[in-house]
Protein backbone atom coordinates (compact mmCIF):
# COMPACT_ATOMS: atom_id res chain seq x y z
CA UNK A 1 0.00 0.00 0.00
CA UNK A 2 1.32 3.47 -0.87
CA UNK A 3 2.14 5.93 1.88
CA UNK A 4 -0.55 8.40 2.85
CA UNK A 5 -0.14 12.12 2.93
CA UNK A 6 -0.31 14.10 6.18
CA UNK A 7 -2.57 17.11 6.30
CA UNK A 8 0.15 19.72 6.57
CA UNK A 9 2.27 20.51 3.52
CA UNK A 10 4.52 23.49 2.85
CA UNK A 11 5.31 22.67 -0.76
CA UNK A 12 4.08 24.38 -3.92
CA UNK A 13 2.97 27.56 -2.21
CA UNK A 14 0.56 26.03 0.32
CA UNK A 15 1.24 26.54 3.99
CA UNK A 16 -1.53 24.38 5.40
CA UNK A 17 -3.82 22.31 3.22
CA UNK A 18 -7.21 22.75 4.83
CA UNK A 19 -7.10 26.51 5.07
CA UNK A 20 -8.70 28.52 2.30
CA UNK A 21 -6.24 29.75 -0.30
CA UNK A 22 -6.87 33.27 -1.60
CA UNK A 23 -4.11 33.69 -4.16
CA UNK A 24 -5.03 32.37 -7.63
CA UNK A 25 -1.49 31.04 -7.96
CA UNK A 26 -1.99 28.88 -4.87
CA UNK A 27 -5.27 27.28 -5.88
CA UNK A 28 -5.36 24.11 -8.00
CA UNK A 29 -7.72 23.92 -10.95
CA UNK A 30 -10.40 21.23 -10.73
CA UNK A 31 -13.15 19.84 -12.94
CA UNK A 32 -16.19 17.80 -11.92
CA UNK A 33 -17.58 14.97 -14.04
CA UNK A 34 -21.11 13.91 -13.05
CA UNK A 35 -22.98 16.72 -11.35
CA UNK A 36 -26.24 15.59 -9.80
CA UNK A 37 -26.52 15.42 -6.00
CA UNK A 38 -23.10 14.30 -4.77
CA UNK A 39 -21.40 15.88 -7.76
CA UNK A 40 -22.55 19.32 -6.69
CA UNK A 41 -22.04 18.49 -3.00
CA UNK A 42 -18.33 17.74 -3.40
CA UNK A 43 -17.89 20.68 -5.78
CA UNK A 44 -19.64 23.04 -3.41
CA UNK A 45 -17.40 22.01 -0.48
CA UNK A 46 -14.28 22.20 -2.62
CA UNK A 47 -14.66 25.78 -3.89
CA UNK A 48 -12.97 26.84 -0.65
CA UNK A 49 -9.76 25.19 -1.82
CA UNK A 50 -9.83 25.00 -5.62
CA UNK A 51 -11.06 26.78 -8.75
CA UNK A 52 -13.43 24.89 -11.03
CA UNK A 53 -12.73 25.44 -14.71
CA UNK A 54 -14.85 22.70 -16.28
CA UNK A 55 -17.93 20.58 -15.73
CA UNK A 56 -19.17 17.56 -17.66
CA UNK A 57 -22.54 15.82 -17.51
CA UNK A 58 -24.62 13.84 -20.00
CA UNK A 59 -27.78 15.63 -18.85
CA UNK A 60 -27.84 19.18 -20.22
CA UNK A 61 -30.43 20.19 -17.63
CA UNK A 62 -28.21 19.16 -14.73
CA UNK A 63 -25.15 20.70 -16.36
CA UNK A 64 -26.87 24.07 -16.74
CA UNK A 65 -28.43 24.10 -13.28
CA UNK A 66 -25.22 23.23 -11.44
CA UNK A 67 -23.20 25.72 -13.45
CA UNK A 68 -25.66 28.41 -12.39
CA UNK A 69 -25.10 27.38 -8.78
CA UNK A 70 -21.34 27.65 -9.21
CA UNK A 71 -21.66 31.08 -10.82
CA UNK A 72 -23.93 32.28 -8.02
CA UNK A 73 -21.46 31.08 -5.38
CA UNK A 74 -18.12 32.05 -6.96
CA UNK A 75 -19.08 34.66 -9.55
CA UNK A 76 -17.81 32.55 -12.41
CA UNK A 77 -19.29 29.60 -14.30
CA UNK A 78 -17.22 26.67 -15.51
CA UNK A 79 -16.93 25.56 -19.12
CA UNK A 80 -19.62 22.94 -19.66
CA UNK A 81 -19.30 19.76 -21.72
CA UNK A 82 -21.56 16.83 -22.52
CA UNK A 83 -18.55 14.55 -23.08
CA UNK A 84 -16.06 14.09 -20.21
CA UNK A 85 -13.23 13.47 -22.69
CA UNK A 86 -13.23 17.15 -23.55
CA UNK A 87 -12.35 17.83 -19.92
CA UNK A 88 -9.51 15.31 -19.95
CA UNK A 89 -8.09 16.89 -23.10
CA UNK A 90 -7.47 20.18 -21.29
CA UNK A 91 -3.97 20.91 -20.03
CA UNK A 92 -5.10 23.38 -17.37
CA UNK A 93 -6.96 20.83 -15.20
CA UNK A 94 -4.95 19.57 -12.22
CA UNK A 95 -7.52 17.14 -10.88
CA UNK A 96 -10.96 15.78 -11.66
CA UNK A 97 -13.76 14.96 -9.23
CA UNK A 98 -15.92 12.07 -10.43
CA UNK A 99 -19.49 11.62 -9.19
CA UNK A 100 -21.06 9.67 -12.04
CA UNK A 101 -23.04 6.46 -11.48
CA UNK A 102 -20.76 3.62 -10.40
CA UNK A 103 -20.56 1.87 -13.76
CA UNK A 104 -18.64 4.86 -15.18
CA UNK A 105 -16.14 5.29 -12.33
CA UNK A 106 -13.34 3.06 -13.56
CA UNK A 107 -13.27 4.14 -17.19
CA UNK A 108 -13.18 7.85 -16.37
CA UNK A 109 -10.72 7.39 -13.50
CA UNK A 110 -8.24 5.40 -15.58
CA UNK A 111 -8.44 7.75 -18.55
CA UNK A 112 -8.08 10.78 -16.28
CA UNK A 113 -4.90 9.41 -14.74
CA UNK A 114 -3.49 8.56 -18.15
CA UNK A 115 -4.26 12.16 -19.16
CA UNK A 116 -2.10 13.40 -16.26
CA UNK A 117 -4.86 14.32 -13.81
CA UNK A 118 -5.09 13.53 -10.13
CA UNK A 119 -8.45 12.03 -9.19
CA UNK A 120 -11.15 12.24 -6.56
CA UNK A 121 -13.81 9.58 -7.21
CA UNK A 122 -16.95 8.94 -5.23
CA UNK A 123 -17.49 5.66 -3.46
CA UNK A 124 -18.04 2.85 -4.21
CA UNK A 125 -15.05 3.11 -6.48
CA UNK A 126 -15.75 0.09 -8.68
CA UNK A 127 -18.46 -2.13 -10.09
CA UNK A 128 -16.23 -5.24 -10.00
CA UNK A 129 -13.12 -6.51 -8.26
CA UNK A 130 -11.19 -6.59 -11.55
CA UNK A 131 -11.84 -2.87 -11.96
CA UNK A 132 -10.21 -2.22 -8.59
CA UNK A 133 -7.09 -4.10 -9.64
CA UNK A 134 -6.92 -2.07 -12.85
CA UNK A 135 -7.16 1.23 -11.00
CA UNK A 136 -4.40 0.16 -8.61
CA UNK A 137 -2.21 -0.72 -11.59
CA UNK A 138 -2.74 2.66 -13.26
CA UNK A 139 -2.15 4.61 -10.04
CA UNK A 140 1.24 2.88 -9.77
CA UNK A 141 1.95 3.28 -13.47
CA UNK A 142 1.17 7.00 -13.61
CA UNK A 143 2.11 8.16 -10.10
CA UNK A 144 -1.18 10.06 -9.83
CA UNK A 145 -2.78 10.88 -6.49
CA UNK A 146 -6.18 9.25 -6.01
CA UNK A 147 -8.69 10.06 -3.27
CA UNK A 148 -11.79 7.88 -2.85
CA UNK A 149 -14.85 9.68 -1.50
CA UNK A 150 -15.33 7.66 1.69
CA UNK A 151 -15.81 10.74 3.80
CA UNK A 152 -16.38 8.95 7.11
CA UNK A 153 -12.59 9.02 7.31
CA UNK A 154 -12.72 12.81 7.54
CA UNK A 155 -15.94 14.78 7.29
CA UNK A 156 -18.26 12.90 9.66
CA UNK A 157 -16.51 14.39 12.68
CA UNK A 158 -14.02 12.40 14.72
CA UNK A 159 -16.38 9.71 16.01
CA UNK A 160 -15.05 7.00 13.71
CA UNK A 161 -11.43 7.84 14.43
CA UNK A 162 -12.21 7.77 18.15
CA UNK A 163 -13.89 4.39 17.70
CA UNK A 164 -10.77 2.94 16.09
CA UNK A 165 -8.58 4.57 18.74
CA UNK A 166 -10.69 2.93 21.47
CA UNK A 167 -10.08 -0.46 19.87
CA UNK A 168 -6.35 0.13 19.45
CA UNK A 169 -6.12 1.22 23.10
CA UNK A 170 -7.65 -2.11 24.15
CA UNK A 171 -10.76 -0.56 25.68
CA UNK A 172 -12.97 -3.49 24.63
CA UNK A 173 -10.24 -6.14 24.87
CA UNK A 174 -9.90 -8.44 21.89
CA UNK A 175 -12.49 -7.94 19.17
CA UNK A 176 -14.91 -10.84 18.93
CA UNK A 177 -17.49 -9.57 16.43
CA UNK A 178 -18.28 -6.54 14.28
CA UNK A 179 -21.76 -5.81 12.94
CA UNK A 180 -22.38 -3.27 10.19
CA UNK A 181 -25.99 -2.17 9.93
CA UNK A 182 -26.43 -0.63 6.50
CA UNK A 183 -30.19 -0.63 6.08
CA UNK A 184 -32.44 -2.40 3.66
CA UNK A 185 -34.08 -1.32 0.43
CA UNK A 186 -37.36 -1.71 -1.42
CA UNK A 187 -38.24 -3.29 -4.69
CA UNK A 188 -40.20 -1.55 -7.39
CA UNK A 189 -43.31 -1.99 -9.49
CA UNK A 190 -42.87 -2.88 -13.14
CA UNK A 191 -41.19 0.17 -14.71
CA UNK A 192 -42.16 0.70 -18.36
CA UNK A 193 -39.85 1.82 -21.15
CA UNK A 194 -40.66 5.40 -22.15
CA UNK A 195 -39.15 8.21 -24.23
CA UNK A 196 -35.86 9.59 -23.00
CA UNK A 197 -36.29 13.00 -21.30
CA UNK A 198 -35.17 16.00 -23.30
CA UNK A 199 -31.58 16.96 -22.63
CA UNK A 200 -30.43 13.50 -21.46
CA UNK A 201 -27.95 11.66 -23.68
CA UNK A 202 -29.17 8.19 -22.74
CA UNK A 203 -26.68 6.18 -24.78
CA UNK A 204 -23.81 8.07 -23.16
CA UNK A 205 -25.40 7.68 -19.71
CA UNK A 206 -25.42 3.90 -20.25
CA UNK A 207 -21.83 3.98 -21.49
CA UNK A 208 -20.06 0.71 -20.60
CA UNK A 209 -23.35 -0.93 -19.53
CA UNK A 210 -25.52 -2.91 -21.93
CA UNK A 211 -27.89 -1.15 -24.27
CA UNK A 212 -31.36 -0.97 -22.71
CA UNK A 213 -34.42 1.33 -22.87
CA UNK A 214 -34.88 4.26 -20.54
CA UNK A 215 -37.48 3.36 -17.91
CA UNK A 216 -39.54 5.49 -15.52
CA UNK A 217 -42.91 5.82 -13.81
CA UNK A 218 -44.64 9.21 -13.38
CA UNK A 219 -44.32 9.45 -9.57
CA UNK A 220 -41.52 11.85 -8.62
CA UNK A 221 -38.91 11.46 -5.93
CA UNK A 222 -38.91 13.98 -3.07
CA UNK A 223 -36.28 14.87 -0.48
CA UNK A 224 -32.63 14.18 -1.18
CA UNK A 225 -32.15 13.43 -4.86
CA UNK A 226 -35.61 14.79 -5.63
CA UNK A 227 -36.96 16.18 -8.85
CA UNK A 228 -36.57 12.93 -10.79
CA UNK A 229 -38.80 9.85 -11.17
CA UNK A 230 -39.06 7.77 -8.01
CA UNK A 231 -38.95 4.56 -10.03
CA UNK A 232 -36.48 4.60 -12.90
CA UNK A 233 -33.29 2.98 -14.18
CA UNK A 234 -31.58 6.36 -14.36
CA UNK A 235 -31.09 9.36 -12.03
CA UNK A 236 -30.68 8.41 -8.36
CA UNK A 237 -32.47 5.03 -8.57
CA UNK A 238 -29.62 3.50 -10.60
CA UNK A 239 -28.30 2.38 -7.19
CA UNK A 240 -30.99 -0.32 -7.18
CA UNK A 241 -29.74 -2.04 -10.35
CA UNK A 242 -26.77 -4.42 -10.53
CA UNK A 243 -26.13 -3.15 -14.06
CA UNK A 244 -24.98 0.20 -12.63
CA UNK A 245 -24.26 -0.33 -8.94
CA UNK A 246 -24.47 -2.80 -6.04
CA UNK A 247 -27.46 -1.73 -3.99
CA UNK A 248 -27.15 -1.04 -0.27
CA UNK A 249 -24.21 -3.41 -0.03
CA UNK A 250 -22.02 -1.08 -2.07
CA UNK A 251 -23.75 2.17 -1.10
CA UNK A 252 -23.80 2.21 2.71
CA UNK A 253 -21.54 -0.82 2.88
CA UNK A 254 -18.76 1.22 1.32
CA UNK A 255 -18.95 3.50 4.36
CA UNK A 256 -19.37 1.16 7.32
CA UNK A 257 -17.43 -1.86 6.06
CA UNK A 258 -14.58 0.58 5.38
CA UNK A 259 -14.47 1.68 9.03
CA UNK A 260 -14.84 -1.90 10.26
CA UNK A 261 -12.00 -3.11 8.03
CA UNK A 262 -9.80 -0.21 9.17
CA UNK A 263 -10.52 -1.02 12.80
CA UNK A 264 -9.70 -4.69 12.27
CA UNK A 265 -6.35 -3.83 10.69
CA UNK A 266 -7.42 -5.66 7.53
CA UNK A 267 -6.78 -2.91 5.00
CA UNK A 268 -4.38 -5.04 2.98
CA UNK A 269 -6.19 -8.36 3.18
CA UNK A 270 -9.77 -9.62 3.37
CA UNK A 271 -12.14 -12.40 4.43
CA UNK A 272 -11.58 -16.08 3.71
CA UNK A 273 -15.28 -16.93 3.49
CA UNK A 274 -18.39 -14.90 2.73
CA UNK A 275 -21.68 -16.54 3.65
CA UNK A 276 -25.19 -15.36 2.73
CA UNK A 277 -27.06 -16.37 5.90
CA UNK A 278 -30.32 -14.85 4.65
CA UNK A 279 -31.37 -12.52 1.87
CA UNK A 280 -34.31 -11.35 -0.18
CA UNK A 281 -34.16 -10.36 -3.84
CA UNK A 282 -36.99 -8.36 -5.44
CA UNK A 283 -37.01 -10.45 -8.66
CA UNK A 284 -36.27 -14.04 -9.59
CA UNK A 285 -32.70 -14.98 -10.48
CA UNK A 286 -31.20 -17.72 -12.63
CA UNK A 287 -27.47 -18.50 -12.68
CA UNK A 288 -26.78 -15.26 -10.85
CA UNK A 289 -28.72 -12.99 -13.20
CA UNK A 290 -32.19 -11.42 -12.87
CA UNK A 291 -34.80 -13.02 -15.11
CA UNK A 292 -36.57 -9.71 -15.81
CA UNK A 293 -35.23 -6.27 -16.74
CA UNK A 294 -38.09 -3.97 -15.78
CA UNK A 295 -37.74 -3.85 -11.96
CA UNK A 296 -35.09 -3.11 -9.35
CA UNK A 297 -32.90 -6.17 -8.85
CA UNK A 298 -30.55 -5.57 -5.89
CA UNK A 299 -31.24 -7.14 -2.46
CA UNK A 300 -33.88 -5.66 -0.18
CA UNK A 301 -32.93 -7.59 2.99
CA UNK A 302 -29.82 -9.56 3.90
CA UNK A 303 -27.50 -10.91 6.55
CA UNK A 304 -23.98 -11.69 5.39
CA UNK A 305 -21.20 -13.22 7.49
CA UNK A 306 -17.63 -12.52 6.37
CA UNK A 307 -14.90 -14.40 8.24
CA UNK A 308 -12.12 -11.85 8.72
CA UNK A 309 -8.48 -12.39 9.77
CA UNK A 310 -8.26 -13.91 13.24
CA UNK A 311 -11.59 -15.65 12.61
CA UNK A 312 -13.45 -12.49 13.56
CA UNK A 313 -16.97 -12.45 12.11
CA UNK A 314 -17.95 -9.30 10.23
CA UNK A 315 -21.72 -9.24 9.88
CA UNK A 316 -23.35 -7.02 7.27
CA UNK A 317 -27.06 -6.68 7.84
CA UNK A 318 -30.07 -4.74 6.64
CA UNK A 319 -31.59 -4.93 10.13
CA UNK A 320 -31.11 -2.72 13.18
CA UNK A 321 -29.58 0.72 13.52
CA UNK A 322 -27.47 2.14 10.73
CA UNK A 323 -23.95 2.07 12.10
CA UNK A 324 -21.25 -0.23 13.46
CA UNK A 325 -21.33 -2.32 16.65
CA UNK A 326 -17.93 -3.43 17.93
CA UNK A 327 -17.97 -6.28 20.48
CA UNK A 328 -14.93 -7.44 22.40
CA UNK A 329 -13.91 -9.57 25.36
CA UNK A 330 -14.19 -6.59 27.70
CA UNK A 331 -17.00 -4.49 26.33
CA UNK A 332 -18.83 -3.14 23.30
CA UNK A 333 -19.79 0.16 21.74
CA UNK A 334 -21.74 1.50 18.78
CA UNK A 335 -20.78 4.26 16.35
CA UNK A 336 -22.49 6.02 13.47
CA UNK A 337 -22.57 9.54 12.07
CA UNK A 338 -24.73 10.78 14.93
CA UNK A 339 -23.43 9.07 18.03
CA UNK A 340 -20.69 7.08 19.74
CA UNK A 341 -22.21 5.19 22.67
CA UNK A 342 -21.40 2.42 25.12
CA UNK A 343 -19.69 1.91 28.46
CA UNK A 344 -16.15 2.22 27.02
CA UNK A 345 -17.16 5.63 25.66
CA UNK A 346 -18.59 6.70 29.02
CA UNK A 347 -15.35 5.60 30.69
CA UNK A 348 -13.43 8.18 28.64
CA UNK A 349 -14.53 10.85 31.11
CA UNK A 350 -12.32 9.32 33.78
CA UNK A 351 -9.86 7.51 31.54
CA UNK A 352 -9.32 9.56 28.36
CA UNK A 353 -7.44 8.28 25.37
CA UNK A 354 -3.73 9.11 25.26
CA UNK A 355 -2.79 12.41 23.68
CA UNK A 356 -2.35 12.01 19.93
CA UNK A 357 -4.41 8.81 19.75
CA UNK A 358 -6.59 10.11 16.90
CA UNK A 359 -3.58 11.40 14.99
CA UNK A 360 -1.93 8.00 15.33
CA UNK A 361 -4.99 6.36 13.75
CA UNK A 362 -5.13 8.96 10.99
CA UNK A 363 -1.41 8.88 10.28
CA UNK A 364 -0.80 12.58 10.96
CA UNK A 365 -2.71 15.75 11.78
CA UNK A 366 -6.41 15.08 11.30
CA UNK A 367 -8.15 16.71 8.36
CA UNK A 368 -11.85 17.44 8.58
CA UNK A 369 -12.22 18.06 4.86
CA UNK A 370 -11.69 15.46 2.16
CA UNK A 371 -10.58 17.99 -0.46
CA UNK A 372 -8.03 19.53 1.89
CA UNK A 373 -6.54 16.10 2.41
CA UNK A 374 -6.51 15.53 -1.36
CA UNK A 375 -4.71 18.80 -2.03
CA UNK A 376 -2.09 18.05 0.63
CA UNK A 377 -1.52 14.71 -1.07
CA UNK A 378 -1.26 16.39 -4.46
CA UNK A 379 1.59 18.48 -3.11
CA UNK A 380 3.45 15.70 -1.29
CA UNK A 381 2.69 13.13 -4.06
CA UNK A 382 1.74 10.63 -1.39
CA UNK A 383 -1.65 8.96 -1.26
CA UNK A 384 -4.48 10.52 0.80
CA UNK A 385 -6.35 9.06 3.76
CA UNK A 386 -8.84 7.19 1.58
CA UNK A 387 -6.51 5.48 -0.90
CA UNK A 388 -7.47 3.01 -3.61
CA UNK A 389 -5.75 0.02 -1.99
CA UNK A 390 -7.54 0.14 1.36
CA UNK A 391 -10.80 1.04 -0.36
CA UNK A 392 -10.61 -1.85 -2.82
CA UNK A 393 -9.79 -4.35 -0.09
CA UNK A 394 -12.84 -3.48 1.97
CA UNK A 395 -15.03 -3.15 -1.15
CA UNK A 396 -14.02 -6.67 -2.14
CA UNK A 397 -15.98 -7.86 0.89
CA UNK A 398 -19.05 -5.99 -0.38
CA UNK A 399 -18.62 -7.25 -3.95
CA UNK A 400 -18.23 -10.82 -2.69
CA UNK A 401 -21.34 -10.43 -0.55
CA UNK A 402 -23.32 -9.44 -3.62
CA UNK A 403 -21.93 -12.35 -5.64
CA UNK A 404 -22.78 -14.76 -2.80
CA UNK A 405 -26.36 -13.44 -2.76
CA UNK A 406 -26.72 -13.64 -6.53
CA UNK A 407 -25.55 -17.24 -6.59
CA UNK A 408 -27.10 -18.22 -3.26
CA UNK A 409 -24.04 -19.87 -1.75
CA UNK A 410 -20.97 -19.41 0.43
CA UNK A 411 -17.81 -18.23 -1.30
CA UNK A 412 -14.26 -19.17 -0.33
CA UNK A 413 -11.95 -16.24 -1.01
CA UNK A 414 -8.18 -16.19 -1.33
CA UNK A 415 -7.23 -12.66 -0.20
CA UNK A 416 -3.63 -13.11 -1.38
CA UNK A 417 -4.47 -14.18 -4.94
CA UNK A 418 -7.77 -12.23 -4.89
CA UNK A 419 -9.76 -15.04 -6.46
CA UNK A 420 -12.70 -17.19 -5.38
CA UNK A 421 -11.45 -20.69 -4.64
CA UNK A 422 -12.87 -23.62 -6.59
CA UNK A 423 -15.83 -21.80 -8.14
CA UNK A 424 -15.45 -20.85 -11.79
CA UNK A 425 -19.02 -19.57 -12.02
CA UNK A 426 -18.49 -17.19 -9.12
CA UNK A 427 -15.12 -16.04 -10.47
CA UNK A 428 -16.87 -14.98 -13.68
CA UNK A 429 -18.55 -12.23 -11.62
CA UNK A 430 -15.19 -10.67 -10.66
CA UNK A 431 -15.13 -8.77 -13.96
CA UNK A 432 -17.58 -7.44 -16.50
CA UNK A 433 -17.21 -6.79 -20.21
CA UNK A 434 -17.75 -3.21 -21.38
CA UNK A 435 -20.16 -2.46 -24.21
CA UNK A 436 -18.47 -2.09 -27.58
CA UNK A 437 -17.36 1.49 -28.10
CA UNK A 438 -17.02 2.13 -24.37
CA UNK A 439 -13.96 0.08 -23.55
CA UNK A 440 -11.30 1.73 -21.40
CA UNK A 441 -8.81 3.56 -23.58
CA UNK A 442 -5.32 2.58 -22.45
How would you sum up this structure, described in words?
This protein has 442 residues and is α/β, with parallel strands linked by helices. The protein has two domains: 24-154 and 365-387, NAD(P)-binding Rossmann-like Domain (Rossmann fold, 3-Layer(aba) Sandwich); 180-322 and 390-430, no CATH class. It is 30% helix and 18% strand.
SSE blueprint and pairings:
Elements: E1 29-33, H1 38-46, E2 51-56, H2 60-74, E3 79-81, H3 85-88, E4 95-98, H4 102-114, E5 118-122, H5 129-142, E6 146-149, H6 159-168, E7 175-181, H7 202-206, H8 247-251, H9 253-263, E8 273-280, E9 285-286, E10 289-290, E11 301-308, E12 312-317, E13 323-328, E14 331-335, E15 340-341, H10 343-346, H11 357-362, H12 370-380, H13 388-407, E16 411-414, E17 419-420, H14 424-427
Parallel strand pairs: 1-2, 1-4, 2-3, 4-5, 5-6, 7-12
Antiparallel strand pairs: 7-13, 8-11, 8-16, 9-10, 11-12, 13-14, 14-15, 16-17
Domain Gfo/Idh/MocA-like oxidoreductase bacterial type C-terminal: 190-275
GO molecular function: hydrolase activity; nucleotide binding
Domain Gfo/Idh/MocA-like oxidoreductase N-terminal: 44-149
Radius of gyration: 21 Å
Low-confidence stretches: 6-19
Q: Tell me the quaternary state.
A: single chain
Shape: globular
Give, in spatial order, the strands making up the sheet with the most strands: 15-14-13-7-12-11-8-16-17
What is the helix tally? 14
